[in-house]
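Next up, a chain.

===
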Amino acid sequence: MSENTNISFEKVKAEDLPLFAKKLQEAFSPAVEEKFGIKEPVPSMKDIELSFNSEGAETYYIFLDGIEIGGALLRINKKTNRNCLELFFISPKNHSRGLGFAAWRAIEAKYPDTILWETITPYFEQRNIHFYINKCGFRIVEFFNEKHKDKNLSRRNQSNEPEIGTDVYFRFEKDMRK
């Protein structure tokens, strides 16, 4: 994928959130089904709504040359410039084409004042772990599990309701000053 890929963003409006959530769940749920054998929309609509409505949330559809390929839900802190990639997906039909990396680079370019990016991913999402570390330059900074719980609750499970795969996960950071 060339660096001059035409990636663009369109804000997701509140009335479009159910469709955005469905597309996000279609991208996330197969890994849960593969790992646990459970067909369940992940993350829950309640958690998506909580993230969408959180302070600093910016939610986008991602386009390549005008064609929708995925989406991102970011939490932007304009005071600290410590930003969070809450949810990020490329539709499964567009996997393995370098579009995730191109979209991530476009997100970085959209927020040039960012000092630090943070994200999380479940322990079983090897594809995501590879992507964040080996492609995007994040590093693992924390591993949450039964012996080391997230004191701020699971960031994916903001509703505090049990959800498959949200209790054991990695936290990643990318320092943009390096």
In short: Residues 7-175 form a domain with the Aminopeptidase fold (CATH 3.40.630.30). The two ends are 24 Å apart (CA to CA).
